[in-house]
Amino acid sequence: MITLSTKLELPTVKTQLFIDGDWQDGALQKTKAVENPATGEIVAQVAQAEIEDTKRTIKAANRAFPEWSKMELKDRVDLLHRVAQLLEEKVEKLAKIMTIEQGKPVAEAKAEILSGAENFRFNAEEARRIYGETIPAPNKRVYIVKKEPIGVTAAITPWNFPMGMATRKLAPALAAGNTVILKPSSDTPLSALALFEIFEEAGFPRGVVNLLLGNSSEIGGELTASDVVRKLTFTGSTAVGQKLYQESGETLKKISLELGGHAPFIVFSDANLESAADGLIGSKFRNNGQVCIAPNRIFVAKEVEQEFTKLVLDRVQNLKVGNGLQEGVNVGPLIREDAIHKIDHQLKDATERGAKILIGGERLLGEDYEKGNFYAPTVLTGVTEQMLIFHEETFGPVIPIISFVSDDEVIKLANDSEFGLASYFYTENLERVEEISNALEYGMVGVNDTVISHPETPFGGVKHSGFGRENGHFGVEEYLNVKFVALKYRQ
Question: Are 257 and 245 in contact (CB under 8 A)?
């Protein structure tokens, strides 16, 4: 165990791999530093897995699968409920761990952990609803459709929601009867480690849940190449998703991908502007804009552009940027230095092409920000299709405002993207609700609302945002195979 920071009196967390029910170092005893993005402080050194460790982990998960998949349903459900209970009981500790490694405000971290508990609770009950069916059959036959767990499942998760993404993938996989291997981001492994401490405390059988930390290419390559691993689920960049998809083709494993986003946020002239401004601020600056479903292109009807922009500026001025452990902070640091460079590059391109920065537009410096990756919340107007920020996902605290005149124009602009994850629009016109929600080429549409992710509802995209769905009964289906049985009961 290691104390993350005695100065901040943060909780302890194990730092080894979790393979076949045991905490252990990697084969070569290597470790990697974990850095606090708010202070630049090294807060932990975590074990690193080698290819040999990955192979052992796959064998362990495969060995545990028959027993786990055939476990009495009530016992499996009880274990999942126990995880949910422990997440809730330990929320204060888990939130501090997440904030120190990822940067988001403690309040956001708590909400993410409690949402993870709900993921386990929902999927525990969904395990009871994995129904087969009987199809009417002639000639003294019975046709039966069964749903069975796939087998060993590998999950690769990103740094922006280190607990949320892990629970969203592992809960349905385990509920369906699969054994799992988690490979979290190297930037934020501590939340995953804390989650696996909970798995151990809950009493999962050996080999059912396994955790690998280390080089993503090496571990990912071993997982995709293995015929034993029958399912891969990944959340991250489109480029990496495409690589995993290609590699998984060799073993024809089932795969689901939740990739990049570039969400349009449309404000029509008849919208409730106060509500739209609140929705934009809440969703855009959540996790400092480092969210795949964050609004990235803000389309505002020309006749209300000035009024709406003022409402947005008033709210942005009241945001408090700082260390997520400090009380009252709304916006934490960016995860890495390169995120700042990307924002600066996009803003430089936009202003050179005629856009105007109304607020922000710079890295925050000074005593409170000196060693962290802090960027001022930014509002940009005069954005056009010729600018990089129109086409590239920002993943940061920038609001680019684009004016439009007609419904047809804004739909064309909104759909002008290779991505198709989330989209939002605000209007009081019911007829427009139907038309615009049908016209948007996105897997999810928020109408007068930006809270679109729930344990009960499907989450996922189209186009280069990937395929497959998480959450709801759709999420569990991703971890099941369908078997057909044809029985002739009398000759």
Answer: yes
Q: What tokens were used for 460? A: 């996922």
Q: Which residues contact 173 (CB under 8 A, 6 or more apart)?
A: 153, 155, 180, 231, 233, 479
What is this structure's pTM?
0.95
Selected catalytic residue, list 222, 292, 393, 478? 292
**Mean pLDDT, range 103-116, rounded to an integer:** 98
> Could you confirm whether 292 is annotated as catalytic?
yes
Cα(96)–Cα(116) distance, integer angstroms: 16
Q: What is the pLDDT of residues 396-411, one digit of tens each?
A: 999 999 999 999 999 9
- pLDDT tens digit string along 82-109? 999 999 999 999 999 999 999 999 999 9
Task: Select from 229, 296, 298, 307 the least CA-distant residue to 270.
Answer: 307
- Residues 222/181, Cβ–Cβ less than 8 Å: no
Which residue in this structure is represented by tokens 């419904």?
407
Give the sign of the dihedral formed by CA 156, CA 333, CA 261, CA 123: positive
**Which position among 101, 108, 112, 258 bears the catalytic label?**
258
* Cβ atoms 107, 88 nearer than 8 A: no
| pLDDT score of 318 more than 70 | yes
